[in-house]
Amino acid sequence: MSAQKLGSGVHTLLFDLDGTLYPIENGYEEKVRERVFEFMVDELKVSSIEQAKEMWWEHFKVYNQTLRSLRQGMGFEFDREKYWSHVRGDPADFLDANFDALEMLRSFPGCKKFVLTNCAEKQAIEALQVLGLEGEFDGVYGADFMGDVCKPERAAFEAVCARAKIEPNGTVFFEDSVKNLVTAKEMGFTTVLVRGKTAAEEAGQNGGFKPDATISAVNLKELREALPGLFIGA
Q: What is the CA 103 to chain-centroid distance, rounded?
């Protein structure tokens, strides 16, 4: 596997997890969402699944993360660890090794690589282990690190940049949510949309925003075709 040379000034690759390092259509996200509604009924004593869905959507539109929606939006108190363990379940039920992503990550040995996800770090790392990608990243930043903020809030990106010591204008950000890419682009990141169900659902909600590149999945071949200016001498 030959090393690739990134364009001048590019030093960091930043990745979302869900829908980016694995396809969102594989059923895992859908199952996580089902478990959220079950948690609301079983643990938070919401009267029905249908009511849970209605409550969730009303607040998720505001808070962009289910944990914050439940705690800050609806005022529920519960154990965070129990919540994350319940709703994320066993990723091995849906995920398996992503060799295309592994090839791409290993093709840039001199580049720093991080994950930024609205999921808790423990569960994010469990997913990365199943994907065969855990050892490829310099750090994983998630809900525990971000605390009271999350993507797409600028404060979430700023906190990660400060902790990881990275500069947006030298970082390529891979994400399946357009609204998260909007914030990243405003900050100076190079933005790569991983096309899928999430982007389709968000179509028309972001003022005609266009990412720097669009790919169908994280892989080296598509990235070279979609963003040739990123590469030099390779």
A: 19
Q: Which amino acid is at 76?
A: F
pLDDT (tens digit, 9 = 90+) per residue, 160-203?
A: 999 999 999 999 999 999 999 999 999 999 999 999 888 888 87
Q: Is pTM, for the whole model, over 0.90?
A: yes
Structure tokens at 136: 């490829």
Are 177 and 108 in a shared domain?
yes
**Where does a domain end: 71, 91, 111?**
91
Residue pLDDT, tens place only, 14-55: 999 999 999 999 999 999 999 999 999 999 999 999 999 999
Specify whether 152 is located in the same domain as 99: yes
Q: Is residue 2 part of a domain?
A: no
Strand, helix or coil for residue 13: strand
Q: Which two tokens stand for residue 94?
A: 């849906």
199-211 pLDDT per residue, tens: 888 877 777 899 9
Do residues 177 and 191 touch, judged by C-beta distance below 8 A? no
The answer to whether residues 171 and 14 touch, using CB atoms and an 8 Å cutoff, is yes
Residue 79: give the domain boundaries.
28-91
Give the span between the Cα atoms of 40 and 47, in whole angstroms. 9
In this structure, what DSSP letter does residue 202 have? T
Same domain, 49 and 136: no
